[in-house]
# Entry
Amino acid sequence: MGQIGERPTVQVPQGMSPCAEAAANANAAAMTATDEWARAFEDFFGRDCAGRLRQGDDSEREVSRMINQIYEYMKKQNLQKTNDVLSLDDTLIRIFRPVMTGGQTTSYRLRDLLLLMRQVISVYKSRAGQARVP
# Structure
């Protein structure tokens, strides 16, 4: 795999149709995006947390631990606009991108954070089998 943002290509058998070749390259790009997102998720929340999620631990305790990590990060980065609204930075956008709604909205109400977190956990668990992150 190349550098982040580099378009992956797949070696295709000679004589493969252009459509089949394009499909193979699109598949490789999708897998790379999945790998990169899973890696960003694991880098932020930690490999131990990711391992517990892959083993099926999405208990209230684990979700609470992850929410607290988000809150601590927000305070450290000064991302809370008001008492009720937080502004996502590039790191949080990368983590929440699979579940973000409203186009390019980067501001969310704090009360929506738990739902976003549960959705992201669900996406991570569904992709964990696809993304082979070392």
